Amino acid sequence: EGSSFEIMTAACSSAGRLELKQQRPAQNNRLIMARIVQKFGGTSVADLDRIRAVAQRVKAEVDAGNQVAVVVSAMSGTTNQLVEWATDIGPVHDAREYDVIVATGEQVTVGLLAIALQNIGVDARSWLGWQIALQTDDIHSSARIKGIDVAQIEDRLMQGQVAIVAGFQGISPEGRVTTLGRGGSDTSAVALAAALNADRCDIYTDVDGVYTTDPRIMPKARKLDQITFEEMLEMASAGAKVLQTRSVAMAMRHKVHLQVLSSFSDEPGTLVIDEDDVMEEQKISGIAYSRDEAKVTLVSLPDQPGIAATVFGTLAEYHINVDMIVQSASADKQNTDITFSLGALDLDKAVDCLEAIKNKLGYQALVADPDMAKVSVIGTAMRSQPGIARTMFSVLAEKGINLHVISTSEIKISVLIDSDYTELAVRSLHDVFGLETA
Ligand code: ADP
Ligand code: ASP
Ligand code: MG
Which helix (H) or strand (E) is 349 found in, with range? Predict the structure, then answer.
């Protein structure tokens, strides 16, 4: 998971956190309190009034004596529109030009926020990905961050200027614009916080923290005061898009002090913390779901070494991410079935590339199902309490929900079901594990 991420600045070992704070000189004769990265998502910058409100939140941190770098997303809905244009223009899809188009939403919001701040007397300037430079690999539309050169921004922060950085975008080794995958501004913010050795990375969104499940489909969901990096990583990868998965992995690795909070209220948010700092007993922390899943079954493949390697190697060559995999035990030692799940958007591409190697693989039939959902139960309780899987499967059975694929990790159990049952499954599981009142 992006382990090659380097921080190109002199004093930023995680041990240097406190040291650096003490070394920071007073600026304009004021004591510098902390260095903070604030990130505002799409709904937080949805229109000019919201951007003015964001400017006030930034100003409050500046007035409190903090150094502030801000990462912003595009106005909500903008990136969807850009993606639509980029994919509808014609059949040829050049991923480099796709990135040039979809990265523009963030260029608008950094400029607007800079002006809004200047208008209320705060010195601010915008930075695009290539200007920093935020360097990535060349996997367009889901690029990984390789390094950030924060020297210039650090200089400006020292002078009391607010840096407003475009989320979601970077620059490839060839100097082309890249984007980090949907929801990628979270990762931009965490990477910047790590590189700047920030004291805090505050992710402002449209809910006031991380909940036991998506509060939009379960109004009884409960806000968590804190969640461990491990649990948050599992929640995010299981579909809780409140934080992009890569941002959590990066925060965990670089010990970034991460919190999720609302730009619409002043409620306390959710702190994402190290497991070592948790006093509580092991518990079930949440239910996550992801609707846009698809399933592929290759029926009656020869039961030979190398078949799975060919199937998944080919998919990987086409940058198709596979999630859950099951291979049935072959009763006759001759043939076996392989079923796997993947993002629904990749289904057509996956079917094409597996049909192209049908003769090489020698399967009898390929069955594709585009309408799947994954529902997951996450919590450290799974390490110590047997019977959680039984409770989960029983309640789903009572509701008549068929399980197509099951997968588990140390602290997560996921099932693939028909997407029509998503909400019923999430609500039933939330109830049976007592998450409302836990
Ligand atoms: P932003 O535009 O600020 O990045 P996102 O839409 O990407 O915001 O993420 C926030 C959304 O995540 C919320 O509106 C909520 O519907 C959804 N969400 C999913 N699971 C959870 C959860 N467990 N806790 C909080 N929000 C969640
Ligand atoms: N604007 C981008 C998106 O909608 C990045 C982000 O919001 O995090 O995916
Ligand atoms: Mg987001």
Answer: helix 347-356
